[in-house]
Design a protein that fits this description.
Blueprint (H helix, E strand, L loop, with lengths): L4 H12 L2 H10 L4 E2 H8 L3 H14 L2 E6 L2 E6 L2 H32 L14
Antiparallel strand pairs: 1-3, 2-3
Keywords: DNA-binding, Transcription, Transcription regulation
Protein name: ArsR/SmtB family transcription factor
Length: 123
């Protein structure tokens, strides 16, 4: 039995749902990086990074490149970078909306509270 598309999408987004994986993908947008460079940027234990890279590699989002004793990782395609840019735009819009709401709430804090008839309720 084939997995429904919506379920496959949910599993895809669940796979992306780890901060280290997102950070790795962000770093790889500029090109392949050696594991040692990823470690210096992310500052986690090598075993944790290895585990997260394994998840990304098995999903097909990243590929590993071995050159001698050095292992580097790269994005498997440009669509992942597009997805990360889209996520950044969406978050920017959401946070902008929240900051506008915050500004409205802060402004309302300094305005007098009016009764339904328009009279000031302050003593």
């Amino acid at each position: 039995m084939q997995v429904p598309l919506y379920q496959a999408k949910a599993e895809f987004f669940r796979m992306l749902g780890h901060p280290v994986r997102i950070r790795v993908l962000e770093l790889l947008q500029s090109g392949p990086l050696a594991v040692r460079d990823l470690l210096s940027e992310i500052e986690i234990e090598p075993s944790s990074l290895s585990q997260q890279l394994g998840v990304l590699r098995r999903s097909g989002i990243v590929v590993s490149i071995r050159e001698g004793s050095t292992v580097s990782y790269a994005l498997a395609g440009g669509d992942v970078a597009d997805l990360l840019r889209a996520a950044r735009r969406i978050l920017t819009e959401l946070l902008a909306g929240q900051s506008e709401l915050l500004a409205e709430l802060q402004q309302a804090e300094f305005q007098p509270a009016l009764t339904p008839g328009g009279a000031d309720r302050r003593p």
